């Protein structure tokens, strides 16, 4: 690491010039929190910023892959009776597209942002369980790579992203594609659950002194709510995907009616997860939006308490909605009415959020930069998606448009509006912090314009297509169906959108290759991540900051209100504070880099993947995993006294 | 920086073995996740059973009560020496720690042996019908937990026998104990579901 002076960093605020050279303490901290680099080093790193960045970059790559799949689908649908793709390939591609977008892009991207940003925002040096963090990443990486490798080797799943039974049972879907799918979905849940437990504990126990719950940044609140949703939503899907795998490999009868199984059980398990999933993606995005709105309006959020309460209530209500995906399965009328009411109700807290943002932006001296543009794009698109959402919450309407392009339009408005636009805003907002380089503003504006126009051009006509009766998941349509013009428009829009994405991807790559130029606090933000260097040093903060208000850096002119001393710079020490008021009450010593989390992830993968071939791999995997965990957790000071480890 | 708001962390405890330790919260989080998994399994059991004319299906015997109840008592008993062990080490009592852990392991192994005998004599398998699928899955999943517990505790007791733990270094024991009690307690609703519900329904 180099020490940089004011001259080679344009636009640096005063605080940087106060640190001309690295202090002795900073040097020692730097050694303590150092991670080895190089090929082998890569497998041992555990720092949250490294793991967070990996999640973000990896999930972005999956976003690009899934985008290419979408373009292939749209190319096939551009003209009627096209033979660009075979029906089988079409099925595989929409399955891979949907699964990748939901499981391998959206959720890991949000986790990555949380893992990177939250510890900085709450003023700590790392997450509570750094090695677990690394483990979660490897599990995710192995899942993604395996699913794609299997796909390229001709074992792509083709049951859609929700893999409805009985279609996906071995009688109707022989081959290994769905075995890989079910197994890899289980992996994604493991990875998400690991991140969830970890972020919850970090937020509960490692906030900077003085950051009581009612002073926590809204982004941190949003992440906390999301992680709780993961804790309650993912396990049921995990049970479901394991049952599916068992039905396929060892002939259990969970879902096969002939053996007494219940196909609807799968739908319940899937949608009990699947609906909250949408909010698991959306709620962090709401946090991103709040961060950006506050920073670019340059004033505190209007209605902080209302914002927190509405995010928390979204978290609760989201669990009362899953059956609206099953309106057409013939459920009891009373149940259907209940779920309709709940589905309409969720519009209320979402509305509160939108009004508070508008009130914050209203009359403020806005700074129009790319992150804010993406937020404004979000407003427009997400509100439209919400509108069609209220429409499909009504049972008669849903029965009419179920499984048509109206639904495809609806959920892309929600997902692209509610996740992709905020994620792009977040990329422009935090890229300087993460990589130490500003992204290009002109490129950002072009990217936004192309994405916004392309998206609406591509997806708005789908509403009409759906109303005209075009079903989803059809690989082609007839000349005289009357769907040609709008379909072609949708394809053109998709390509324009993709071009917008490409602009950002290229810009990010080029910026990354440039010399670091980002100031510590380029946007004048109020949260603690802006109080350290860009990119932050290995140890995040030389002194753990003390917080005295809700707007950590705005209370006293760009600096935290105080600092914590007495953490040993020669050990990976972090401050532990109380849950409600963040009063310091202990110090935790974190473990350092190691290869064991990687080995443990490989062991888990061996067990699960082997199981597809033979059940004997279950005990083998269990044993290998156990060995992995023992190596990982083996205490550093066996034989030494407690004193040696502590003092 | 403002000197008045400096806070000195030099004297704060470094390895507390209670709710002040993040690891303690991590285990609580793990328990929460697993509770949701077990709750889902129980819900699935009822969901699969609810539309069936008979549950367990015709031709399948209602499960016997003697062996499972015995096993349940043995498993519940294993929590006592575990408690004795972790209470012991927070007072620095190595004997309680060492023997408590071993005794718990012995009881858990007994539980598994009883389960093994019971299930090897079961007239149906996981592939027989949906009842078999869910019953075997629940048992398999829970037994896997017990096996993991035993393996984990073997390691902890190896460390105990070489004198690694002390009253100041007891977090691993305490956390292992919390998880142990969880696996014991979660068995009770599973036991009630698997062995009592079919009787009540019949
Ligand atoms: C580049 C922008 C995108 C385009 C052009 C696009 C296009 C498509 C197309 C053509 C389909 C298949 C429709 C059908 O035949 O039924 C589809 C399905 C789907 N898309 Fe996208 N999509 C895009 C982005 C996204 C994003 C960002 C997400 C989620 C975060 C997403 C989630 C889904 C899901 C869940 C499905 C359903 C798959 C299934 O039917 O199993 N898409 N998309
Ligand atoms: Cu929904």
Automatic annotation (TrEMBL), chain B:
Transmembrane domains' residue ranges: 23-48, 97-117, 138-166, 178-197
A GO MF term: cytochrome-c oxidase activity
Gene3D superfamilies xref list: Cytochrome c oxidase, subunit III, four-helix bundle (1.20.120.80)
Bilayer topology annotation: Multi-pass membrane protein
Localization in the cell: Cell membrane
GO aspect biological process, one term: aerobic electron transport chain
One Gene Ontology term, aspect cellular component: plasma membrane
Protein keywords: Cell membrane, Membrane, Transmembrane, Transmembrane helix
Annotated ranges, domain Heme-copper oxidase subunit III family profile: 1-199
Superkingdom in the source lineage: Bacteria
Keyword Cytoplasm: no
Classification via InterPro entries: Cyt_c/ubiquinol_Oxase_su3, Cyt_c_oxidase-like_su3, Cyt_c_oxidase_su3-like_sf, Cyt_c_oxidase_su3_a-hlx
Record-linked Pfam families: COX3
Family the UniProt entry places it in: Belongs to the cytochrome c oxidase subunit 3 family.
Protein name, entry field: Cytochrome c oxidase, subunit III
